[in-house]
Amino acid sequence: MHHSRISAYVLDCKVDDLKDASEFWSKALGRPIETFDQDGDGKYAELKTDADEPFLLLQRVDHEARIHLDIETDDLDAEVARLEALGATRIAFVKRWWVMQAPTGHRFCVVRKQRAEFGAHLNHWD
Fold this sequence. Notes:
9-stranded mixed β-sheet; single chain
């Protein structure tokens, strides 16, 4: 059995620098900025969320702006297989996660567990 849950809401931003985008979304959503540069590569900024909430990330991208979900799991292969059985398709493996596409055309990512404790909002799959 493996577990999964929503890990992050990711605002894909087609911008050169995330600073202005981070400041806008921080003010619009009433969330302080946790960091302008989460990984040190200028691609991810993070707004502050509570420990039991999904991360709220801004990602610098080359494609058109959109929002996507990250689903975190303790078994990447099992979760990807489960989602494929539901009709999703694999698009690309990037670093440590899968970019997938739902039958509805929405892109999302399946990532390894992001926080030490999953908490109460887990889905259990056989």
